[in-house]
Amino acid sequence: MTTYLFNPPAVQSLPIRGKTERFPINRIFCVGRNYHAHAVEMGRPVDKTVEQAFYFTKSPQTLVESGATVTYPPRTNNYHFEMELVLAIGKEGFRVSEANAHELVYGYGAGLDMTRRDLQLVARDKGRPWDTGKDIEQGSVCSEIVPMPGVVIENGTIALEVNGVTKQSSNVDKLIWNIREIIADLSTYYHLQPGDLIYTGTPEGVGAVVSGDQITGRVEGVAELSLTIGAAE
Ligand code: MN
Q: What is the DSSP letter of 189?
């Protein structure tokens, strides 16, 4: 039996609707600029005919469940919400075709890709990595995982409110790279594994929250989420 100098970090996991087992998290991938109107509001419009999808990762340790109260993070004055459809991978796959991509789908959740926008934009404009802007403690929020094995979601309202006021409202049919395309393309870079989460990108309307704010969001046909922004440490 292996012994460790100290206790290894716990496996991160999410509840699964209708099951007692939890969904163990392997990796968290995020798709950048995957709705045209959001790409435009970021000043970086996307031309799919000449550009490829791009990705960044967040540590599994950044994950918190819907319903949590999180600490307002250090080193930012512009902490943004990004409401996203989250894809949960249930089978391994490498160089998967778009036609077979549905075989990797375990289910979906509703998520928040929380972002230190001030740090992300400095990094972007200086050509630096995005890690401190994106890989934020308590900065990856997800609802329960809803089992929908083999299902490819093609439409449904995606919306977010802060303190009851609508900030984001769109439809996942506006994804630039859709679920099949994301799985096929990401699997050319990585051997996708059960437990991988893919945050599929956010629509327009992103904005800042402050301590005391209440975020609620939903993806039609999948799940709802909520998050409370607590005080800074
Ligand atoms: Mn995002």
A: T
